[in-house]
Amino acid sequence: MHTAWEEAGWEQLGDGVARRRMPGWDETIGVIAGTTGVMIVDTGATLRDGAELRRTIRGVLGRDVTHVALTHPHFDHVLGTAAFAGVEVFGAAGLGDLLRRGKDALRHDAVRHGVDRDAAAEAADLLVAPHHHVHGQLTVELGDRQVLLANVGPGHTAHDLAVLVPGRQGAPEIVFCGDLVEESGEPQAGPDALPQQWPGALDRLLALGGEDAVYVPGHGAVVDAAFVHAQRDALAARFGVAPAP
């Protein structure tokens, strides 16, 4: 029997936790539901994406998103944020300033990757910067559950945020990794990546989740700690960084 999440096109990862791989750029969107709050992890590539995500989450839960966590500043993960009006937005320290001064670059990047020009311009013009800046770790209360936001970067970008959902009743912890981890292809190191520091970011990510956690990449299928270790070592070899001790 399918769950309500699966019937709505999402993959259920645990009690009150699900994710969706979006069409087009295959970016992962996460949702974490507590008794008094609902957090979405990333918001899609356009306002239309964000609005559709908001509708489907409301359709499953019967209530609205209250918190947004942005894992990093790439168009396919942030441009839907304005569709979540009135919601508390969280990001790694420095993300807000980057988004405010980099709207034109974000719009150009979206168009270059195939987003409709008008849709990209609208989303960039209305882009919502984080209200809450995560320097180290920050716990967010969603009623009967706590979510830990951790600034584990830099790596894929200068502003990489991971989201840890503690397990319930013996279930494993779930870590939303953003694009620090990718499964559907080789991790993408663009001009804003800090490749020398990326393996260290994965060390911090693994320390956060532990060996038994479920790791949710920014693109691709859910993986385990062994996959993250292997990707860490591959990145270290690719960028000439010393292997993990």
TrEMBL record:
<keyword id="KW-0378">Hydrolase</keyword>
<dbReference type="GO" id="GO:0016787">
    <property type="term" value="F:hydrolase activity"/>
</dbReference>
<feature type="domain" description="Metallo-beta-lactamase">
    <location>
        <begin position="26"/>
        <end position="219"/>
    </location>
</feature>
<protein>
    <submittedName>
        <fullName>MBL fold metallo-hydrolase</fullName>
    </submittedName>
</protein>
<dbReference type="Pfam" id="PF00753">
    <property type="entry name" value="Lactamase_B"/>
</dbReference>
<dbReference type="InterPro" id="IPR036866">
    <property type="entry name" value="RibonucZ/Hydroxyglut_hydro"/>
</dbReference>
<dbReference type="InterPro" id="IPR001279">
    <property type="entry name" value="Metallo-B-lactamas"/>
</dbReference>
<dbReference type="InterPro" id="IPR050855">
    <property type="entry name" value="NDM-1-like"/>
</dbReference>
